[in-house]
Amino acid sequence: MLPNLKLGLDRRTGLNRFLTSWKSSDDPGAGNFSHRINPEGSPQLFLYEGQVPKWRAGHWNGIRWSGMPRMKRGLIFNVSFVNNENEISIEWGVANGSILARLVVNESGSVQLLTWHEDQGRWDEFWFAPKDQCDNYGICGSNGNCVLNDDEFDCTCLPGYRPKSPQKWYLKDESDGCVRKNQTALCRNGEGFVEVANVKAPDASVARVLANLDLKACKDECLRNCSCTAYASLGVTEGSGCLTWYGDLLDTRVFIEGGQSLYMRVDALELAQYANKRKDLLARKGILVIMILSVATAVSSVVLFSYCLVRRQKRLSQNGQHEMFICSSSTLPDDHPREKELDRSGSDPHLPFFDIDTIVEATDNFSNKLGEGGFGSVYKGQLSNGQEIAVKRLSKQSGQGIKEFMNEVQKQLLDWKKRFEIIFGVARGVLYLHQDSRLKIIHRDLKASNILLDASMEPKISDFGLAKLFMEHQIEAITKQVVGTYGYMSPECAMDGLYSVKSDVFSYGVLILEIISGKKNTEYGKESPSLNLIGNVWKLWREGKGLDIVDYSLLEHSYPCEEILRCIQIGLLCIQEHPADRPAMLEVVFMLGNETSLPPPKKPAFVFRTQNGQESLITRGEVCSINDCTITMIEGR
User: Fold this and answer.
1) 344 and 433 both lie in a single domain
2) Which residues contact 289 (CB under 8 A, 6 or more apart)?
3) Which of 137, 154, 450, 558 reaches 20 to 30 Å from 4, CA-CA?
4) Which positions does UniProt annotate for ATP binding (predicted)?
């Protein structure tokens, strides 16, 4: 069992454990940088240059340092924080004893967490700080707030403040910080608080800790003291205490996600201005919510029974009727008088079909319109039993087919945040199969259609019909009957019948790229230089155009470019041609859950076209389908 790393102060003996840098890369003498806990106020972890703060991890919020929103516990490292009358300490341990890790402060002024890769014979950077310009301590001066936009930072003043030196501020010199707009109207004169969301709370070494107070009690306490300038929650759970500040605020920054709320004291005028802005925003949101609810009602119903849309379209086309699709969230009871309205011939009883007369009656001749999309209008309807339904009527002018219609219905529910949750959730599921279950399980048919989403859009791995059990120390196996799905099978499995955990890793890599692009690996036509998604992604990645593969439906909203590029790179690492080059699922979870540096991917296994239109890679005699069905290859070895 490897020893844990512990930093902090023993109050009884005065012993203070901390890390220092070397003087240089070849001089192990004590350097000028140190990584230590500051016990003042609410204890925080700092990186110092001499005695000057260089980076601050924030206060401990019960599960992590508040300035490290991506810090996760229990996946790779066990982290424990102690703050009592005997000591203030932070202790790290490795959850998996096979992993070697070390925390260092280098001579250039960076904290690094390194992990050892045995197969590559080197230490790789798993995490480091500071990461960006907003991580530099106090970069926006007193009462400033740092915002990162596309790798460039901007400084803003916190609510109730203005730049101290407007001219220098305009010239991007924000070192003087911000000062109060009105110094005389903050004491029992109608003042209040404005919320600043998703931030790293200011330096807590000068804050006052109020234990066991909820936010309302903390607000009242701060309001009673005219010197109190701001307050924030201490922990992530209700009633876990709060922090209050009584002067200038230092080192506040905005996170894209994972930050906390800071409540700033402002005068009555500023409070009124923010209240008006909020009213305007809520009014706009109200209109948007009405639209979203209307569309969501239609979309959610349609998504639940998307299969029936395909069947209905074919049937209506054969009968020469108007193209129209309808789905409801439940079927009618068997003894209902309108049961004859359902056409169940050759269909699943849970997928009801309705004739045109029923639809016209239910929608009051299409009079209750919910919204409109690229395919036509969506109408609200009600069957005779009171069941509400949503009807989508395809426009003859749309020029689009059933495939595009299906894409429109499902993709709108999958923003980038949800897609990343699915990517991460599947990774944890496969890791469980490979490592944490009682027996090692190789799924062998990991693909999009075998990932089911529950009502909360949480991914579940399904269909274990082709799965194989490995003994504890078994690494790989060979099969005479090669099975899998076209587009997801690893090359060693398709060509030689050889499968292992790395076969599942390959399939998972394909799945990542499909989730990001919204396209199947086998969806490319004859006009494309690549026969599949893998070939196209590899080409664009080498050209520095990785983001060109992002699903067009994500382009309507802002999305984190760096995180998406990181996921693309992880996907490419998973589909490298040689199994030994691919990461294990434990490493994949590592990489997804933390901002460690990633190795460059090697050439993946894919098929592409040459200039004369010939395939550059020809597989052996195989019987396979290019659809979504599982295949069996006859001649494996």
Assistant:
1) no
2) none
3) 137
4) 392
The predicted pLDDT at position 495 comes to: 74
Q: Decide which of 234, 266, 298 is a domain's last residue.
A: 266
Distance CA 629, CA 620 (A): 20
Instruction: Return the pLDDT at 12.
Output: 94
User: Residue 228's domain spans which residues?
Assistant: 152-266
β pairing state of 144-149 and 252-254: parallel
- 3-class secondary-structure state, position 45: strand
Assess whether 407 and 468 both reside in one domain. Answer: no
Bridge partners (DSSP) of residue 477 are 499
> Which are the contacts of 297, defined by CB distance < 8 A and separation ≥ 6?
370, 380, 388, 390
Residue 392 annotated as binding?
yes
Q: How far is CA 313 from CA 1, 239, 308, 427, 623, in A?
A: 63, 56, 9, 36, 31
CA 628/CA 204 separation, integer angstroms: 55
Provide the pLDDT for residue 215.
92
311 and 325 in a single domain? The answer is yes
CB-based contact 137:55 (threshold 8 Å) = yes
3-state secondary structure 100-118: CEEEEECCCCCEEEEEEEC
pLDDT averaged over 10-residue windows placed end to end, the chain, 637 residues = 81 94 92 95 96 95 87 70 94 81 92 88 90 94 90 88 85 89 75 93 95 91 93 85 95 90 90 69 50 48 45 46 38 38 39 74 83 68 79 64 52 78 92 82 86 82 79 54 73 77 92 90 62 86 89 73 91 91 90 87 68 42 37 36
Exposed (0-12), middle (13-18) or buried (19+): which is 484, by Cβ within 10 Å?
A: buried
Same domain? 474 vs 566: yes
- What DSSP line would sit under 445-512, residue for residue? ---GGGEEE-TT--EEE---TT-EEE-TT--EEE-SSEEEETTTS-HHHHHH-EEEHHHHHHHHHHHH
> By three-state DSSP, how is residue 285 classified?
helix
Q: Can you give the CATH number for the domain in which 622 is found?
A: 1.10.510.10
The answer to whether the beta carbons of residues 552 and 416 sit under 8 Å apart is no
Looking at 354, 376, 411, the residue that finishes a domain is 411
Q: Is 304 a member of any domain?
A: yes
Q: Report strand pairing: 376-382 vs 260-266.
A: unpaired
pLDDT for the residue numbered 371? 66
Same domain, 490 and 551: yes
Q: Give the pLDDT of residue 87.
A: 95
Annotated catalytic residue within 445, 504, 551, 581: 445
**Same domain (yes/no): 427, 400:** no
Does this model's pTM top 0.85? My answer is: no
In a domain, 282, yes or no: no
Please tell me the total count of domains within the chain: 4
316 and 231 share a domain?
Answer: no
Instruction: Look at residue 299 in the predicted model and tell me its pLDDT.
Output: 47
Instruction: Kindly state whether residue 141 falls inside one of the protein's structural domains.
Output: no
Tokens encoding 162:
């203005």
